[in-house]
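Task card 7
Instruction: Convert sequence to structure tokens.
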Amino acid sequence: MTRTAEQMKGRAGRLARLMPSGPNTAARTPFVLLVVLLLAGGLISLLLLNSALNEGSFRLSKLKRDTTELTDEQQALQRDVDSYSEPDALERRARELGMVPGGSPAFLDPDGTVRGMPERATAQPSPVTSPEPEKSAAVPTGPASPSGSGPTSPSASPATASTTPPTTSPPTSSGR
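Output:
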């Protein structure tokens, strides 16, 4: 064992001669500073990238929330438009404006001849409060009439079908 210790001293001595200590340690300082600066720069850029991603995530969640609110508002507005476009609502508003249902239509052929006999629309006395009872009376007959009705005009509402004389329905269906 003494021989191996002597060999170690000899090897350590040779290694010590190959790597001298002292003034050469100052040459490592710039390299160590460069590595530390690169690591610090990498950490700072990672921090900036992470904060930019978080900002984008917050902005995305705000935009999604705004989109949801605007979609809800659009659906509410579409329901309002649909309620104003229903045949009963259109008829009620037309009567409030003083409009009356038209008579039998007349059609023009491409050669200029008139087909059918046009009739003048006559104003029927309609009380202002009558559309509401007709609307409530039309609710029970509304679901029953589509299932049991055959040749009915698709534009005629249940309320107009009950108040319109049966003589005006055949010309509109035969004219189409």
